[in-house]
Amino acid sequence: MNDWTTVPDIRTRALRRWDDGTLLRALAAGHPFPVIDIPLRGPRAAQIGDDLGAVQAWIAALDRGRRGDTQYSLDYAPIGGRLIGRNELPTRARVTTYKQAWALLGVAGKANEYAEILALTAEEPAVHSWVAGQPLRALSLGPTWPGLLTAYRWLADAQGSSKYLREISAPGVDTKFVERHRAVLAQLLGVPASSSGFLAALGLRTKPEMVRLRPGSGLGLVPPFSEATLRLQEVARLDLEVRTAVIVENEITFLSVPVPVGGIVLWGKGFEVNRPGSLPWLRDTQVHYWGDLDTHGFAILNQLRAWLPQTRSFLMDRATLLAHRERWGHEASPTAAQLDRLTADEAALYSDLVTDRFGERIRLEQERIDWTWAEERFSYR
């Protein structure tokens, strides 16, 4: 009788309908209960006479488990062999109502909580639809629903307002609440869940992008200061005549390199190089770029040339790499991406790095290059 269906087996089969959300989705939609019909594995006719007591105990356990049909009902069918009681054995267990399912699974409290969430969100169609479609996720948010609704309403009303999220005035919620539940709020509002995408899609103001620069004295950009960090949008609107621009990946190197006459030095900050790259007054300027000698350094150079195709690299060559063997490190996660904007020499060196020609995952960080070597090769002076 090891394979005869037990009450826990019946509960397990029914639980699948709870776990996949079927039962709560049907409840939310107002549909009749999706009947759970479970075939029972029981004794064969030949087994009945062999152990009548075991068969009677099995029937009794199933009968007790239905709790007077409050958890499930049983269907019976006649079976050949020695007569047992009603000459019938249970062949199917059937759960036919929501009340039965909640009792069988012990989830009446959760089902009531879900019904309360449905009622709470009834006046917000988009939210109500989400709750109806993702019942278990909605349940997991439990006590946060009043706050979520308040935040949702404020964000929906603030769309296109160009406000900062910090200006949220919804009772009981703040920016940290919104950030903590951004993924859910994004689904409710139908916008991207990323921080920048969430705000941009809602028409809210994002944190301004900044660009850090060291202008030559002749530009008259920020006298008497030698360095400034300014809002990218504001800098982009300037009408500057820059003869030469130098974009540098590493911060300390950015502070160390000489500013070209009539020019400017900008901090590229790795893959944030799009910021200086997007400045319109650099489009007709001589641009020089210095980055790490590794695969990602060339990827950043390739990315910058999408904005400024005239960019020339310096100190990103084979001679510099091979002259500093004792200072090589290892690149944690090299890229092998196709880079279409490299010169022939750059592409050859990039290929050498990708294929480990000189060693496994080698890299020469910008700040490890001998400064005297570098000074003698500043091509923009």
List keywords for this structure.
three-stranded antiparallel beta sheet, alpha/beta, 19 helices, 42% helix, 381 residues, 11 strands, 3 domains
Structure overview:
By secondary structure, the protein is of the alpha/beta class. It folds into three domains: about 5-105, no CATH class; about 115-200; about 210-375. About 40% of the residues lie in helices and about 15% in strands. The chain contains 19 helices and eleven strands. The chain has helices at about 5-20, 20-30, 45-50, 50-65, 100-105, 110-120, 125-135, 135-140, 145-155, 175-180, 180-190, 195-200, 230-235, 250-255, 275, 295-305, 320, 345-355, 370-375, and strands at about 35-40, 75-80, 90-95, 210-215, 230, 245-250, 265, 285-290, 310-315, 330, 360-365. The strands form three sheets. It has a six-stranded mixed beta sheet with strand order 5-4-7-6-8-9. A three-stranded antiparallel beta sheet has the order 1-3-2. Helix 14 links the parallel strand 6 (about 245-250) and strand 7. The longest helix is centred in the first third of the chain and has 14 residues, at about 50-65. It starts with 6 loop residues before the first helix and ends in a 6-residue tail after the last helix. The model has no long low-confidence stretch (mean pLDDT about 95).
Report how far the terminal alpha carbons are from each other: 91 Å
Shape: elongated
Could you tell me the mean pLDDT?
93
Order of helices and strands: HHEHHEEHHHHHHHHEEHEHEHEHEHEHEH
Binned strand content: 5-15%
Explain briefly what this protein structure is.
The protein is of the alpha/beta class and 381 residues long. It has 19 helices and 11 strands.
